[in-house]
């Protein structure tokens, strides 16, 4: 059988020193993550990132940059994740949005508050924010996605 990593997206969104994060249930625990999820068939990484932010927080987001590719092997099941992380700007909140199953709701936290909770879903949650604060960013056109229509 051929090994296949899971392609996921996440978005770092900062406003006034606080980051838009998601409190969610994972394997029976409450954890905190960036708005994140799996790439779906037929969508680009950028489209997936925008969709996941809406589905998990109720916020429209405008992507501004690509933060990087983060590779993580989950210790509980040895699944490998290739996490494409973006930097986005919160545009508009939809208070009546229906959030994905397992999502408790969005929270705005500083990096220090996130670390102090001890609830980061994986080390990547803190690493992505740290990289963002270190001014790591790449233009969105660094990603080249060939589609059937190209």
Give an overview in words.
This protein is α+β, with helices and mostly antiparallel strands and 150 residues long. The chain has helices at residues 45-57, 111-117, 123-133, and strands at 6-15, 18-26, 29-33, 36-38, 59-73, 80-93, 103-109. Strands 1, 2, 3, 4, 5, 6 and 7 form a seven-stranded mixed beta sheet that branches. The protein is globular, with a radius of gyration of 15 Å.
The pLDDT mean sits at: 95
Tally of helical runs: 3
Shape: globular
Low-confidence stretches: none
Strand content: 35-45%
C-alpha end-to-end distance: 31 Å
List the helices and strands and how they pair.
Blueprint: E1 6-15, E2 18-26, E3 29-33, E4 36-38, H1 45-57, E5 59-73, E6 80-93, E7 103-109, H2 111-117, H3 123-133
Parallel strand pairs: 1-6
Antiparallel strand pairs: 1-2, 1-4, 2-3, 2-7, 5-6
